[in-house]
From TrEMBL:
Belongs to the methyl-accepting chemotaxis (MCP) protein family. It comes from Tepidibacter hydrothermalis. The keyword Cell cycle does not apply. Coiled coil: none annotated. This is Methyl-accepting chemotaxis protein. InterPro entries: Chemotax_Me-accpt_rcpt, DapB_N, MCP_chemotaxis, MCPsignal_dom, NAD(P)-bd_dom_sf. Residues 158-264 form the Methyl-accepting transducer domain. Keywords: Chemotaxis, NADP, Oxidoreductase, Transducer. PROSITE patterns: CHEMOTAXIS_TRANSDUC_2 (PS50111).
């Protein structure tokens, strides 16, 4: 459908904006005596033909004429010259069209504002996700440090356990030595009485050393269990961090898509 628009004021401009992108409608000509009218300026920008004379309608293949001036003389002149050839929408019909167009423009403006808000919000979310991602990376680093520390501690405890085993070995040997000394003191009778006291003290020392080594070993076992618990919790933390990372990446993809779509 080829349309001619008479009157390029604000209302006419809105009509041009509303129907210019419609594939089935072609604006063939816009007429206004004021070449600085908003609609004429828009025509210049869009490459739409414009004129100051309604007689130029004769040079165009027009299906419909929209009279948007509201001027009775213009409406009368159009009826006299072109009503037998073209369908004419008078200013009353044009006002209805302009009302619908203005409503549509307001709706589009609101939609544009909403899209702008969504885009701004999406950018904020994107920034926050970036911060979360950085925090998760830091958590991974801390988890790795803790895991290395627990492994190092376990290695030290294992070294300590070797020392305790060596102490136990010395204690056992000392105890045997004390028992042998006691036996020899008993054989010596009265002459070995003083040596017997020393032998008893050696046995006490061996017994105490063995007891202390046992207590230390029990403490180290408890520490080892605690470190294993910490290590398990660190593994859980790493798993949770990975879940957060995966979730953040999915949200990031969705936000990027939203920003791209609302930018079109």
């Amino acid at each position: 459908m080829n349309i001619a628009l008479i009157g390029a004021g604000t209302g006419g401009k809105n009509i041009i904006q509303a129907i210019n992108d419609t594939d089935s409608i072609n604006i063939s000509l816009v007429i206004d005596t004021n070449l600085d009218a908003p609609g004429i300026i828009l025509c210049k920008n869009l490459g739409i033909d414009y004129s100051q004379s309604i007689d130029d309608l004769n040079n165009k293949n027009i299906d419909l004429i929209i009279e948007a001036t509201g001027n009775n003389n213009v409406a009368k002149l159009l009826q006299e010259k072109f009503s037998h050839k073209h369908t004419i929408i008078d200013s009353t019909g044009a006002r209805l069209v302009m009302t619908l167009v203005n409503k549509n423009i307001d709706t589009l403006s609101q939609l544009s504002n909403h899209i702008s808000i969504i885009r701004d919000t999406s950018n904020i979310v994107k920034t926050e996700l970036s911060d979360i991602s950085s925090s998760i990376d830091n958590m991974h680093g801390i988890s790795d440090i803790l895991l290395n520390s627990t492994q190092t501690s376990i290695a030290h405890i294992q070294d300590t356990d070797k020392i305790i085993q060596y102490v136990n070995k010395i204690a056992n040997q000392t105890k045997i030595l004390g028992i042998n000394a006691t036996i020899e003191a008993a054989r010596a009778g009265q002459a070995g009485k003083g040596f017997s006291v020393v032998a008893n003290e050696v046995q006490k020392l061996a017994t105490n050393s063995e007891g202390f080594a046992k207590e230390i070993n029990e403490i180290l076992v408890k520490i080892t269990d605690e470190i294993k618990t910490i290590s398990a919790e660190v593994d859980k933390l790493k798993n949770l961090s990975q879940i957060q990372t995966d979730s953040s990446n999915k949200v990031q993809v969705a936000v990027d898509k939203l920003i791209t779509e609302t930018s079109i």
